[in-house]
Design brief:
single chain; alpha+beta; 2,3-Dihydroxybiphenyl 1,2-Dioxygenase, domain 1; 2 domains; 5-stranded mixed β-sheet; 3 helices; 17% helix
């Protein structure tokens, strides 16, 4: 393909199926992802890996210590994963996630309203970036007068979000 040719778009419905993270301590990572966020442990391998999911899927997140047991996070100024984004189905379910973080004493790096979504930003025990978010219905997404997507970043009202939590 020449750069002057427009690429054929990827097929609609394509999704990122899972993320697999290198961690220093598998038990510590499971305590965060399962103990705090509520993912379910689907399988744990004696080789130092675990597979966790929401709702019984085979795995949304893989965790392993194969090349990273006892390791340190990459230093600033290096390439790598910026964050893993975990999509919640409703605003109330995101509020529940925030409640869990508060209960575990985990501080946020930030919280943003992007127009299309509302997002919480934090770090896991290995300093991997984590975004917890929900998408607004597409009909509510902000658009320019020409009909193009017009995402933005504003401060998210955490108190208002917490009021949305399902019982």
């Amino acid at each position: 393909m020449h750069m002057s040719e427009a690429p054929t778009p990827i097929i609609a419905g394509t999704r990122i199926g899972h993320v697999h993270l290198k961690v220093a301590d598998l038990d510590r990572a499971l305590a965060f992802y399962c103990g705090v966020l509520g993912f379910e442990l689907m399988q744990r391998l004696s080789s130092g890996a675990a597979f966790i999911s929401a709702g019984g899927y085979h795995h949304h997140i893989g965790l392993n210590t194969w090349e990273s047991k006892g390791g340190q996070p990459p230093p600033p100024g290096t390439t790598g994963l910026f964050h893993t984004a975990i999509l919640y189905p409703t605003r109330a379910s995101l509020a529940d996630a925030l409640h869990r973080l508060i209960g575990a004493g985990i501080e946020l790096d930030g919280a943003s309203d992007h127009g299309v979504s509302e997002a919480l930003y934090l770090r896991d025990p290995d300093e991997n970036g984590v975004e917890l978010y929900w998408d607004r219905p597409k009909e509510q997404w902000p658009l320019t007068p020409e009909g193009k997507l017009a995402m933005f970043t504003k401060r998210l009202d955490l108190d208002d979000l917490l009021r949305q939590r399902e019982a």
